[in-house]
Specification:
heterodimer; A: 229 residues; mainly alpha; MetI-like fold; 10 helices; B: 362 residues; alpha+beta; Rossmann fold; OB fold (Dihydrolipoamide Acetyltransferase, E2P); five-stranded antiparallel beta sheet; 22% helix; globular; Mo/tungstate-bd_C_term_dom (chain B); membrane (chain B); translocase (chain B); Transp-assoc_OB_typ1 (chain B); molybdate ion transmembrane transporter activity (chain B)
């Protein structure tokens, strides 16, 4: 594989992993954010701490814990393996690592958005005859959409940049588990690999800045609509 | 269409125990803040379940603590107009107005979007977002939104309280049209402003400290001397009905009530229409002889029905003028010196300015 092809392959894999991680994590993060924002139950602070744990643990530790839980010889990993799902040393494992590492950021953004919704608006919708599911779909969801979008962009960016947990859990196999950050790191290990590293740094920067710009533009459109401009 | 409610609820030191009926027209729940008005209307709407009691609409139970019945707010079909409008900020006025229409049963009778936009003057606002509306416009849109859910009854929680004077005057005629119009929708109206209820209500429920103190037709309760301390001595006063006869060139309007003719400034209504006049009790003077050489234009022969002596230096005198009733607030010393007693005939002197312009309405 030429070095150029390897860089493009790493970019493709990173985008693939980040997209999957975002798509899978958004509904789950929204659900957890909803529970944390709106419900009171025993163990709420424990759940909150658990969600935020990857933010404070060294990523290598998170990756190692994943390996212990989902490795081929771990009970959970064996169980998944028997139904044809292999996570360790596979791109789907990189998706899992990206989900877990981005989860605290997503939940936080969404929770803040949910807490900012005035429950009195939902009460008003109820008096107008709207059933619960319609209140969520027609009032709550549109109002928290900017927060969901912000959370999704953060999760996507985190997934694009995730390195420590990913390389620990799924290693650094070109074309299979070598994401952009892993490829940059690998290039820097080879004498004369700086040029290739710089090319990939540019790729990573363009994707990250692009994601932020798109989300800003969407958020501006929502804000402008509500302001009636 | 009759709402019947008995609500008992306790939270902290506050103890609410009220029972009342609300039939056609506007039923006003009046009381100072802390009297329990909003708690009552929220219990009626189903926004919370009270400790005990029942709420029925046309006999159908919406809440019954003994039968453990509780109908969720979405299924009660009340149109609730909140004090703070609560328009959905992400929807324009048209989308806000039609929000609840799809949830009404197909058989439900109610106004169309065109009816409502005409009634409330919303046609020009349909494509605007709530953030760009004035307080009065928001409240009109909120009323329209409640109407278009085709409710069986409207609940209004101080819909004018967050508006300034001119904005209030802007909304009041719309509320009168709602009351008198073809919709004929019953309204439960919460307020702590006597001028609003004097102008709008048909039935009045006076609340104090979580209890009903008086309950009956507006004209009766407002003319009841016992209600003076509940309404406030400066705000108390009977409401009479009068027909507009003509407008004179000096700005005064000639009106006829059953008790006699009146000449008042600031009446906007067309000749031939009937208006409500709120006559503040503290602006009515009494004279045992027919007064002469007086600057006041309006003198009515009246009969004393009741002399109600309070604890303080004041006394409230219930008067009958034709079919109408008046209330006068004078001092106890004056009662003694003039020898005012029940069934005595005397003259009530109303200063022409004693009728506030905002209190004149159909």
């Amino acid at each position: 594989m030429t070095s150029d092809a390897a860089a493009w392959e790493a970019l493709r894999l990173s985008l693939w992993v980040a997209c999957w991680a975002t798509v899978l994590a958004v509904p789950l993060a929204l659900w957890i954010a909803w529970i944390l924002a709106r419900r009171d139950f025993w163990g709420k602070s424990l759940l909150s701490a658990l969600v935020h744990l990857p933010l404070v643990l060294p990523p290598v530790v998170t990756g190692y814990l994943l390996l212990m839980g989902f490795g081929r010889n771990a009970p959970l990993g064996r169980a998944l393996d028997s139904i044809g799902i292999t996570l360790a040393f596979h791109w789907s494992g990189a998706v899992l690592a990206a989900i877990i590492m981005g989860f605290p950021l997503m939940v936080r953004a969404m929770r803040l958005a949910i807490e900012a919704v005035d429950p009195k608006l939902e009460e008003a919708a109820a008096t107008l005859g709207a059933p619960r599911i319609a209140i969520f779909g027609r009032v709550t969801l549109p109002l928290i959409a900017p927060g969901i979008l912000a959370g999704a962009v953060m999760g996507f960016a985190k997934a694009m940049g995730e390195f420590g947990a990913t390389i620990t859990f799924v290693a650094n196999i070109p074309g299979q588990t070598q994401t952009l950050p892993s490829a940059i790191w690998a290039a820097l290990q080879i004498p004369g690999g700086e040029n290739q590293a710089i090319a990939m740094v540019m790729m990573a920067s363009v994707v990250a800045i692009g994601a932020v710009l798109i989300s800003e533009a969407l958020a501006r459109r929502v804000a402008a609509r509500i302001a009636g401009a | 269409m009759t709402l019947s409610a008995h609500i008992r609820h306790r939270f902290g030191a506050f103890d609410l125990d009220v029972a009342f009926d609300a039939g056609p027209g506007i039923t006003a729940l009046f009381g100072q803040s802390g009297a329990g008005k909003t708690t009552i209307i929220n219990a009626v709407a189903g926004l919370f379940a009270p400790d005990a009691g029942h709420v029925t609409l046309n006999g159908d139970p919406l809440f019954d603590s003994t039968a453990k019945a509780f109908v969720v707010p979405a299924a009660r079909r009340f149109g609730y107009v909140f004090q703070d409008a609560r328009l959905f900020p992400h929807l324009n006025v048209r989308e806000n107005l039609t929000f609840g229409t799809r949830y009404a049963p197909a058989s439900a009778k109610g106004a169309s979007l065109d009816d409502v936009t005409d009634l409330l003057g919303l046609s020009a606002l349909l494509n605007r977002m709530p953030a760009t509306l004035s307080g009065g416009e928001k409240q009109r849109a909120a009323i329209g939104r409640a109407l278009l859910a085709k409710p069986q009854m409207l609940l209004m929680d101080e819909p004018l309280a967050s508006l300034d004077g001119p904005r209030k005057q802007e909304i009041l005629p719309y509320l009168e049209r709602l009351r008198d119009g073809p919709l004929g929708l019953p309204i439960l109206y919460v307020s702590h402003a006597v001028d609003e209820i004097a102008r709008l209500a048909d039935t009045l429920v006076l609340l104090k400290d979580g209890r009903v103190q008086a309950h009956g037709p507006l004209y009766d309760v407002m003319a009841d001397p016992g209600a003076v301390p509940l309404l406030g001595v400066r705000e108390a006063g009977a409401v009479i009905e009068a027909e507009v006869l003509s407008h004179a060139t000096d700005g005064l309007t000639h009106l006829r009530s059953s008790g006699g003719d009146l000449h008042l400034p600031g009446v906007q209504a067309q000749p031939g229409t009937k208006v409500r006049l709120r006559v503040l009790a503290q602006d009515v003077m009494l004279s045992v002889n027919k007064p002469e050489g007086l600057s006041a234009l309006n003198v009515m022969p009246v009969t004393i029905q009741d002399v109600h002596q309070g604890d303080g230096p004041g006394a409230a005198i219930a008067l009958r003028a034709g079919d109408d009733r008046l209330l006068a607030r004078i001092t106890r010393r004056a009662v003694a010196e003039l020898g005012l007693t029940t069934d005595m005939r005397c003259y009530a002197i109303l200063k022409a300015t004693s009728v506030a312009p905002g209190s004149i309405g159909r």
